[in-house]
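Q: My labmate handed me this sequence with no annotations at all. I'd like to see what the chain might look like in three dimensions before we decide whether it's worth expressing. Could you predict it?
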Amino acid sequence: MKLSRPKKIALIITSVVILALVIAVVIINFYVGSLIEGKIREALKKSDTNFEVSIRNVNFNIISGNIKILDLKIQPDSNLLESIKNGEAHIGSVQSAEIPLFKIAGINLYKAIVDGYIDLRKIELRQAHITFYRGRKPKQEIKQKGNKKTFRTDSIYLKDLNGVDLKRIVFKRCKVDVYDLVDEKFIMQSGEINLELTELDLIEKPEKIDVFRMGFDHFKLELSIDEFKLPGGWYNLSVKHLRFDMVDSSIRIKGLKYWPQYIDLDKMARDLKFTKEIFNLDIKHIDVYQLNAGRMVNQGEVYIDSILVNGMSLNILKDKRYPFNEKLRPKLPQQLLKTMKLPLDIGKIKVEKSYLRYQQKMPDQKELLTVTLNKMKANISGISSVKDSIKKGEVLKIRLNAKLMDKANMDIRFVMFLNSRSDTMFYSGSLGSSMFKPFNQALVPALGIEVKAGKLNSIVFNGSANSHFSKGKMTMKYEGLVAEVFKKESKDKNKFMTWVANSAVHKNNPGKKGKLRVAHIEFERVMYKGFGNFMWKSVQSGLVNTISPTGKHEKVDTPDKNEPKEKAKKEKVKKKEKHKK
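A: Here is what I predict for the chain of 581 residues:
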């Protein structure tokens, strides 16, 4: 098909125009790219002389509005690092960054040049590696007049700008490390971190020129952490996915894990030097509702309506072959809240569908003491460190329900008055029926006693405590208790001690005469041990006082004490009637 002369001319003109535009775009891209690169290099030369800053090159695309900065490196020089290490600088830490790709996407040049308004689709940092170098505390800190300047999101000064609209900030496959210059080792290292921030706005304040506030009305954050080696060298942390949404003020976390950096936990216990819990935590879901983010960012106060923890699996190991650190003074929950510097207020925390396993390595015992709480759920309310709330009489309440050893229903409650000068708290609990044998996982390693027979019918207890002493009462109903005692450092049966134990202890409660023993709970706290030990030892005193003939208890009548006599009378009447017939 032959084209007419006018069509040929039109086609040639169109081709020339397109070619001219392509050449113009290439020239503009090259010119603007070179201009941007020149400006960046010029700014780098004028930057702090204590840093070595370099880039490989800058690419610019006028059509897409993309700027790519390749191989950006910002490194503190050796003199600065040495002075920070020795505490001779006015700062105690410094950062370095290696960023293979720094991308600014979708920039509107016309708005930026003509209107002074920065409109960006995305800022992306890919495979960035940021290192924090930490040294000694500065010997001479720079004195500032008045209050120290702090970054405020509601008062940001930016000269000659009319606003900023930034859709997304993305960190892809990035890493963050903390290096101790004094000890010459990494104290924190991360695996790959992915972070995305969306809907960030800078809005000019009408009452002040060149002063902006950050707009968080539609802000969202998404984060995943492959692995984080936490400071101290003991634990790792990972998060499969975290999402924060400003619209509904919620945080949703999936797949939170916290586990030891040690593969050999015996070595970890040895390196800890003292008896200390080793934790391994795995949580499927955490939902945080109504977090006041503005108050947290601007005022440093954490206010949360509620938190839901679902599918928690917590394993705790304590190696008691090592000494306790007797210098410690662990605080009770109410004491922790009252002395907390961070203003914290959480309406309630709810734990569902969870599991806890506590294990101890005992001296001279090969078997681990093991206690499990299956189908665990908890409700905690009144969590506050805010002084006004404490003065008004805020009460911390804790309720825990679980299947102890997957057999007996357990219900425990604590009520702690935050405004109490003596840190008074009240506790109560109950345990449902079960055979005694499942508790051997704890009794054999701890006491060298194995229960061969017997049934627990119920336990009910209540009491009060302060930071030093606990007292209360316990009613433990059981029947047919028979036990064996093992020789120390051996699984061989100690026949004499077994005979003594079974002869001495009360085998039933109520006893043969129908009298019910109500035991006293009395325990003086060991001040270098924590809340868990305090409560367990209090309950243990009630158990011992119930079973032991020398234990502190009182006898009371039971409603069913005459039941055996009534049965005997009825049987006697039946036999007489039978004989008459």
